[in-house]
Amino acid sequence: MNHDLGSIAAALVAKGKGILAADETVPTLTKRFDALKIQSTEESRRTYREMLFASVGAAEFISGVIMHDETIRQKSSSGVSFAQLLSDQGILPGIKVDTGAKPLAGSFDEKITEGLDGLRDRLSEYRSMGARFAKWRAVIRIADNLPSAACVSANAHALGRYAALCQEQHLVPIVEPEVLMDGSHTIARCEEVTGVVLHAVFRALFEQRVVLECMLLKPNMVIAGEECSPPDKVKEVAVATLRCLRQHVPAAVPGIVFLSGGQDDLVATAHLNAINRLPGPNPWKISFSYGRALQDPALKAWHGRDENLQLGQQALYHRARCNGAASLGAYTD
Ligand code: 13P
After folding, report:
1. Three-state secondary-structure class, residue 137
2. Which residues form the signal peptide (predicted)?
3. Which of 77, 136, 190, 320 could form a disulfide with 162 if both were Cys (CB 3.0 to 4.6 A apart)?
4. How far apart are CA 295 and CA 301, in angstroms?
C-alpha cells in the first residue's frame, strides 16, 4: 500500500508539473462568478470545470486536479465522469474532503476546520469514484495576539487525524496549513508564525503515525500581510520561505506544493521560480497547487460565454506552462 501511495505522491510532483486546485465550494465559486457577473448554476459550474479539465496540452504541466464534492459527481458534456476525463489524460483526480473552517469556540475570530466525523466512509467512496489523493485546508490568521496556541494545536491535530485516515483508505493526503495573507503583519512575523504552525503540524502527523513519504505539504509562502507596505521583494520572499521550510519540513516528505493565497498570478509564478533558483539541493520537490493563480486568467477569458471556451483553455494552458517552468526555476517573463 505504501509503495503505491509513494508513487502517487511522486507523480504529483513529477518534474515540471504541479497541481490545479479547482475545489472551490459552491459559495466560493459563486462569489468568483458574481464578481464577473457570471450566473452560478450547477450547469455553469460544470461547464467551467469542463473547460479547465479539458484544456488541450495542460496535462504536460498539471499532474493532478483537486475537485469539490459537486464536481467529482459531475460528467463532461460527452457523458464521462470528470475523474475519468482527467485520468484519461494522465492527470490524477483529487478531492477536497474537509467540510470547511468554522468559528473556533472560545477564541476571537479564529477558525477550526471540520469534517472528521464520517470521514473514513467518505474517503472510501471518493476512492471508488477514482480519487487518488485528498486535501484538507486549515486556516491560521495572524493578528496582534493571534494565532492562539489553541487554534494552532486544534487545527494541527485535525490535519494529523485526516492524513492518517487518508493513508488507511489508500489516498495520498495533501496537508494544507494556510497562514493567511490578511492583515498588515511583516514578513518576519509570517515566518515566525509559519514556523510555529509547521512544527505543530509535523508533531501531530508523527503522533498520528502518518507516513511522511506518502503525503505532500501544501503551505503558504512566507510573505508580508497584504496591507503591509511596501510589498516584499521577490528574492526576500524566496529566501524567507525556503529558510522556514528547511527548518520545519522533514526530508522524508517528497514534495511541497504551494497555495497561492490571493497573490497575483504573475507574482505567484515569480515567487515559485525564485524559490527554485536558490542554491540547493533541497530534500523535497517544490512546486505549485494553485487555485486562483492558475484559474483567474482563464475565468476572466471565459466570462461565462460559450464562444470564449477556447480562450479560457488557452489562458489556463499558458499559466500552467509558466508555473511548470517555475517549478524548475526555468521561468523567464
Ligand atoms: P489558492 O491558490 O487560490 O490560495 O487556492 C489554493 C487552495 O487550494 C486553497 O485551499
Report:
1. strand
2. none
3. 136
4. 10
